[in-house]
Structure formats: structure tokens, C-alpha cells
Specification:
The complex is a heterodimer.
Chain A: E1 3-11, E2 16-22, H1 29-37, H2 44-60, E3 67-69, E4 77-80, E5 87-93, E6 98-106, H3 116-138, E7 142-144, E8 147-149, E9 156-157
Parallel strand pairs in A: 2-6
Antiparallel strand pairs in A: 1-2, 1-9, 3-4, 4-5, 5-6, 7-8
Chain B: E1 2-4, E2 7-9, H1 12-19, H2 23-46, H3 50-57, H4 61-67, H5 76-86
Antiparallel strand pairs in B: 1-2
Helix pairs in contact in B: 3-4
Classes of the chains: A alpha+beta, B mainly alpha.
Chain lengths: ~160, ~100
């Protein structure tokens, strides 16, 4: 069983950007993604597009049109909509003002389900989405405007 | 905590990554994003969908969808086609 914590990456008056950390790791999944692809010459364009897209989202909002739904209809897992089939970044779009970034990777198969790596990232987010909804229901966390409160020190069991 | 492009980075990993983007890469991304948002805004104002835009431009819906994705690189030819199809200016050149 993995443990998950939520790390705040950026917070503006408009948007909060979070990412998930596994098993007490100080480096979040999005930071791990950035570290992994920063030197990848083959995917450099896609990598930089993702960095710039996240910056833009922090500035203007995590609008639905900036994402393509992945996962199932019942969850909030999405992939950042970039004009490339080569690199994917997965996230949970909670609202226009709250985005939780996960991990991602090179897309070498037609669908993410065919890739053990990518489907793993999607499944992690799907499972975390359920935990988040349960925590919200029981009142241990609250989501209001651009802030998730109650996450400091909270450890989720995935 | 450092500021890059008006964003305060709490993470040194993300701050370093943002610093690695050149001014040209940022300007190119911003221009393309601005064009895409302008097209989206016109569609909203006219109550039109991407499907309508595909029909008006004679392009496949899948191609039109790409115009709204981050990092799409518009050509002048495509911008001209969309401007004519929508009957609204998208890019204006300062004289």
C-alpha cells in the first residue's frame, strides 16, 4: 500500500497548483516528471510546451478546454491537451481554480491502457481521486474556490 | 522562492525548469496561445462550435481540435483561412 500526500506547488489569487507525493517523498510526481524529461532532446519541444502550458493555466485558470478526458467518466483524470502525440502529463482537474498534477511519460502506444507505465499513472490518479472525494465527504478536507484546506500533514492510504 | 515570468516558484526544480525556457520559446508559445484564445472567444460570441468551424473552413474536426491545443504552431495560411471563415480579424499587423 502506498501513502500519498498533497504538495502545494504554486498558489495565485486565481489558481492553486498541487501535485502528489508518494511514500513521504519530498519530490512530487510533477517535479519527478520535470526532472526526468529536462535533458531529453527528443521530447524537448513537448516538455517545454507542457511547462509553458502549466504556467498559462496558473495565470488564467484550469479551464476544461485545456484538457482531454482520460480515465473513466466517473473520475476527474485528464491529460493536458498539447499538440503532440508523443508526451503525456496526467492530472486531476478539480475545478477551474484547482489542478492536481500527476506524472506522465512518453506515449509509445495508441492508448494509455496499452502502456504499463502510463496506465499506472492514470490508475494512481483515479485511486487518489476517490480518496479525495471520500475525505471531502467525511469533512477532513474542504475545497473552496482555489484552496484545498486540511491537506497539511494529511496522509492518504492509496 | 524566485520569480520567473511573474510566477513565484515555491519549487526550485520548477523554477530551474522555467528558467530554461528561452524568451523566443516563450514569445512563440504566447503568440500561438493568444491566437487560439482569440478564435475560441469568437466562437463563443457567435455561439459556434468547433464542428461549425470545421465545416466553415473545410477542415476535419480532428485538425480543428488541434488549433485549440497548447503548443499548436499556426501558419499565416491557417490564420487567414480562419479569419475569412469567421469574418473577424484574428491577427492585426501594426502599420
Amino acid at each position: 500500500m502506498k501513502t500519498v500526500t498533497l504538495k502545494t506547488l504554486e498558489q495565485t489569487d486565481n489558481v492553486s497548483l498541487y501535485s502528489i507525493c508518494f511514500d513521504g517523498n519530498a519530490i512530487s510526481e510533477y517535479e519527478a516528471f520535470v526532472e526526468r524529461f529536462k535533458e531529453d532532446a527528443k521530447l524537448n519541444n513537448e516538455y517545454k510546451t507542457i511547462l509553458l502550458a502549466i504556467e498559462k493555466i496558473v495565470a488564467v485558470g484550469a479551464f476544461e478546454r485545456f484538457f482531454r478526458p482520460e480515465g473513466k467518466m466517473s473520475d476527474r483524470v485528464a491529460a493536458l491537451a498539447i499538440d503532440s502525440r508523443k508526451l503525456r502529463l496526467y492530472c486531476l482537474r478539480i475545478s477551474d481554480q484547482i489542478l492536481i498534477l500527476g506524472n506522465g511519460g512518453e506515449k509509445t502506444t495508441k492508448t494509455y491502457e496499452e502502456s504499463e507505465e502510463l496506465s499506472g499513472y492514470v490508475m494512481d490518479l483515479q485511486a487518489f481521486d476517490k480518496l479525495l472525494l471520500e475525505a471531502q465527504k467525511e469533512g477532513s478536507i474542504t475545497i473552496e474556490k482555489n484552496v484545498i484546506t486540511g491537506i497539511e500533514g494529511k496522509v492518504f492510504q492509496l | 522562492m524566485k520569480t520567473v515570468n511573474n510566477i513565484q516558484y515555491h519549487s526550485s526544480i520548477l523554477e530551474k525548469a522555467a528558467s530554461s525556457i528561452t524568451p523566443q520559446e516563450r514569445a512563440s508559445f504566447d503568440l500561438n496561445f493568444g491566437i487560439s484564445e482569440r478564435i475560441y472567444q469568437i466562437l463563443q460570441e457567435k455561439g459556434m462550435s468547433k464542428r461549425d468551424l470545421a465545416r466553415l473552413t473545410g477542415k476535419k474536426e480532428s485538425e480543428v481540435s488541434r488549433w485549440f491545443m497548447f503548443g499548436h504552431n499556426f501558419t499565416c495560411k491557417t490564420i487567414a483561412l480562419i479569419q475569412l471563415a469567421l469574418g473577424e480579424p484574428i491577427v492585426e499587423v501594426k502599420k
